[in-house]
Amino acid sequence: MTSPLVQAFFVGRAVAEVLSERLEHTVTDALSELGKFDAEAREQMRQFTDDVIERANRASEAAGTGVGVTDVGTSGSEPVDTQATIDDLRAEIADLRKEIRVYPSNAG
């Protein structure tokens, strides 16, 4: 009673199921690899940052300046108020400009 048309239907359905499963596994594996890559890239960036800060601190100590570089990461540190930092820098620039204007009159 099985006609070639019914048999073709079931073969086509089986092919679609197998392709769907393989596509699902491929996409899952690709997303997994992407997640691993992202995690490794973040870890390498963190290690790079730590190495840079460590070298900067060693160079500062060797120069005898006593000025240390703090970790720029956000873990365990207070969040930086960017606007307040900008305002402080603008105030310092204004003070320096005032000093520069006064300097030529005192030098001559």
UniProtKB/TrEMBL annotation:
<dbReference type="InterPro" id="IPR040003">
    <property type="entry name" value="PG18-like"/>
</dbReference>
<feature type="compositionally biased region" description="Low complexity">
    <location>
        <begin position="68"/>
        <end position="77"/>
    </location>
</feature>
<feature type="region of interest" description="Disordered">
    <location>
        <begin position="59"/>
        <end position="82"/>
    </location>
</feature>
<dbReference type="GO" id="GO:0010027">
    <property type="term" value="P:thylakoid membrane organization"/>
</dbReference>
<protein>
    <recommendedName>
        <fullName>Thylakoid lumen protein</fullName>
    </recommendedName>
</protein>
<dbReference type="Pfam" id="PF20711">
    <property type="entry name" value="DUF6825"/>
</dbReference>
